[in-house]
Design brief:
Shape: globular
GO molecular function, one term: oxidoreductase activity
CATH class: Alpha Beta
Number of domains: 1
Strand order of the largest sheet: 3-2-1-4-5-6-7
Largest sheet: 7 strands, parallel
Organism: Aspergillus ibericus CBS 121593
Protein name: NAD(P)-binding protein
Bound molecules: NADP nicotinamide-adenine-dinucleotide phosphate
GO biological process, one term: secondary metabolite biosynthetic process
Radius of gyration: 20 Å
Family: Belongs to the short-chain dehydrogenases/reductases (SDR) family.
CATH superfamily: NAD(P)-binding Rossmann-like Domain
Structural class: alpha/beta
CATH architecture: 3-Layer(aba) Sandwich
Length: 285
């Protein structure tokens, strides 16, 4: 269980879920360090944060040298709770997406959180306590058309956190993977699509699920068009869980995510029943 007042380090705290979490954590009496790639922009976007005692640090986990900067920060502030929140979505068909676009997505959604985790672990191990929270996504267990790259980044970083949860179980450090559905943040209005194609998809994918997904995201001007998740409620739920304790690894957020998870479990079960006899026929005699 987190101490009554603990120190939270939240990446990408200038907007959306990170901003809600930062403000709610301050309200709950915690010390909060929020990172942003641009502090002056962050201060304008979220003036209440500094007013309420929040500490801004200009840092970008996606930069290759970020681990050292985060390690210094973790030590200086004696971080108790790391929230890996910064991220964006790349939406595009597998064939239409360039390798650079995949690598850029991985730098932010995979290598970024990996660097901050490695930076904070020594401090948490030394005191025998700490929480590592990953803001993943429903896309972290389900890969819809046009979302292969984004899902790849979230599946991959979930794998690191799942493995880590076993590695640090007896060292006093806990891991929580949060899987939000669609929440009302600026997230969907900031998505990137394949740069090579004017409409975000190539001719061969016209009329397919790829065109549908890419065009739908490109049309979105306001997230409230489709998202039912309230970021402040998500933040309150996360803080409560960290404070009260938990004995699970994954926490879906939003009714849409619960429905998606049930559907995924059903698909996996159906797949297993269809292949069980094949699978069990391949053991040595
Ligand atoms: N909103 C949803 O529906 C939803 C659903 C599922 C999962 N999520 C996940 O929730 C997390 C937060 O997203 P949000 O909805 O709060 O979106 P948001 O409002 O766009 O906030 C994203 C934050 O991530 C940072 N960020 C964005 N692009 C970045 C880049 N290229 N490099 C480094 N940092 C970057 C930004 O920080 P600075 O600009 O201050 O550096 C920003 O504060 C993400 O990991 C996202 O995958 C969101």
């Amino acid at each position: 269980m987190a101490a009554t007042s603990s120190t939270w380090l939240i990446t990408g705290a200038s907007s959306g879920l990170g901003k809600s979490l930062a403000l709610e954590a301050l309200k709950a009496g915690h010390r909060v360090i929020g990172t942003s790639r641009n502090i002056s922009k962050a201060k304008t976007a979220c003036p209440e944060f500094s007013d309420k005692g929040g500490i801004w640090i200009e840092a970008d986990p996606a930069q290759k040298d970020a681990q050292d900067q985060f390690a210094k920060c973790a030590q200086e502030y004696d971080v108790d709770v790391l929230v890996n929140n910064a991220g964006y979505a790349f939406i595009g068909g597998v064939e239409d997406t360039s390798e650079t676009e995949v690598r850029d997505q991985m730098e932010v959604n995979f290598y970024g959180p990996l660097r901050t985790v490695r930076a904070c672990l020594p401090v948490m191990r030394a005191k025998g306590s700490g929480h590592i929270v990953l803001i993943s996504s429903g896309a972290g267990f389900m890969a819809r058309p046009g979302r292969g790259t984004y899902s790849a980044s979230k599946f991959a970083i979930e794998a690191i956190h799942e493995s880590l949860s076993h590695e640090v179980r007896n060292l006093g450090v806990k891991v929580l993977i949060v899987e939000p559905g669609a929440f009302r943040t600026p997230f969907s209005t900031r998505i990137l699509t394949p740069a090579l194609y004017k409409n975000g998809f190539s001719e061969g994918y016209k009329g397919t699920a790829v065109e549908q997904m890419v065009s739908w995201f490109r049309r979105i001007t306001s997230i409230s068009e489709f998202a039912n998740g309230d970021p402040d409620k998500a933040a309150q739920a996360i803080i409560q869980v960290i404070t009260r304790g938990y004995d699970y690894l994954r926490m879906p957020l939003g009714t849409d995510c619960v429905v998606a998870l049930e559907s995924k479990i059903g698909e996996l079960q159906k797949n297993l029943e269809a292949t069980r006899s094949i699978a069990t026929s391949t053991d040595v005699d």
